[in-house]
Amino acid sequence: MAGPREAMLQLNQCISRVEAAEARVLARSAEPCPPLRWKEVALANAISQLVQKLNACAESVPSTKDKLIRLTKARISGRKLYVFDPRIVIGDMKDRKLIQDNAADDALKHLSLFVPPPDAVCVPKEEWPEDGQYLWRKALPTLDSRGLALWACNRAAVHVRISATEIVECLLAADELCKVDSDGRLQCDWERQAPPPELKHQVPWRIEGGGIKKDSVIVQAALLIDLPHSNPAYERVQQVRKDHDPAFERWMPHINLIYPFVKLDALDAAGLKRRLQDTEQGAFDLELTSIGVFEFKTGKNFHLRPSSDSEAKLKNLYDQLISVLPLSPTGNWQEAPSTQAKGKGKGKGKGKGKGKGKGTDQSEDAADAEGDHAGKFVAHMTVAKVESSSSIDTDTLQKLLLEPGGGVVRLRVSKVSWCVRTDSTPFIEAVALSLKEQSSEQEVEAATCDLQFAEQQLQAAQSRLELAKKELQQKKKDRDSHAEQQLEAASDYNNIQGNNATDMEASMMDEGVNAKQRRKPGGGGESRGEKNAGSECDKEVRRRRWLASHRREQRDRDSVRKAREMLRSVQRDLKSQSQSLEIA
Fold first, then answer.
1. CB of 339 within 8 A of CB of 356?
2. What single string gives the DSSP state of each residue in 195-250?
3. How far apart are CA 352 and CA 28, in angstroms?
4. Per the count of CB atoms within 10 A, which of 90, 171, 189, 474 is most buried?
5. pLDDT tens digit sequence for 349-375
6. pTM score, two decimals?
């Protein structure tokens, strides 16, 4: 149970997280998002196009302003601006009943592989110009789902009309290429002409590739989640794999998501990253909690298996990957197009000797594609591949891999690795497909929950602290009272003992003086009182009385000192107990 200090520290950390997340949300919401100035962009594009046409016909440039306006009217009547997301275009067509719902859904599947142009702008529907001529709101030709998706990409534009007079006036006002002299003739100064600005929003969106070919799917590529070197379980897993996994040199510790996968040049990595970022899939924590085994004809595959919650998260990640990937050549990314591979073997040919033939890929890479789980996504991290007669078992691996980590291997999944290899090199990460971290709003919500929990812990700790303080104060009060009583009793006892000793000594001295006074003067028999107190002089009697009084005072001081030491000891014990309660 956390003490008050730990609870306060956790509370401060939660408050800092909440404040930081709220600041990011406010900063992001405060960023200006200026609307697209349709006419200004279209006018700038029209002027650039006119300058390009004048450059192309430099020897036959119109001689007057009116002729230039007529040329502009004939060649340039406005500009197309590709500033719409084709998926929104499909939705608009669906809302206007231009296409059926099932046709729209099929087209959207193909549009999951769209590639935007470099200067892509997606204007929201509420900012669309009312007087714009939208190129997709026309009669639709008969197309299949892929053709409809391509048609939407090419038509995701608006045509903005601009008068030829306005285009020419803006060109002359710039006074860079053309101007009108005093005679009304058009003069062009080619030396002063600046390069025409680049046309904006003139490139349509496109759909990536034309589908995945069978020969693009290879066993030298995989989509996987790797176990980082920094993970505490990495060394344990590698030690077991080194002894029991034939593919130790070729693979890193990993969980295959899609294997085999495509060559690097078969898909656009940037487009795949963007599509994955556009999904709802975010980073998550993964827990491997048990040892599983796949039974084959000649051996066994031992692996780390995720918990039920982590397995659901991995399945969701797999589904998101399938949604952003093109269709597999077999229709299922868990089924390889072919297990055949080229190899050297003995075969018949036109000449004698050995020739090239067909052979199967017998590498360890294809081993996981066998068994009852073939064609299905089963999340696992292989740690050992052994023969059926091997003595290795799940209990042994449990002790080696899971028990040192408290029965679980934990890792943070923040990316998916697109790994490739060659025939002579191991798998390496070629592309990292990052997953979305929590947004600022989610961070605020999570931090707020943590804050509420920390406040509850703090209140409970403060209640326990107040109760402990009351108990401590009562104990201290009782001990102080007991110590005072002991001090008073010791002081009274010492005073009584000292007084009795002093009275006894004084009495003995008085008896000696009286005996001396009773002695007869003059002769008499030999006196025997010279050796007792009665034979002492008055000076000696006073000295003995002073010594007796001094010893009584000394005893009083000693009794007071002992009482003080006892009280201090009690106070030290109480203080030590108070500190121990505060720490607890």
1. no
2. PPPPP-S-S--EE--S---GGGEETTEEEEEE--TTSTTHHHHHHHHHHH-TTTTT
3. 74
4. 90
5. 444 444 444 443 444 444 444 445 556
6. 0.48
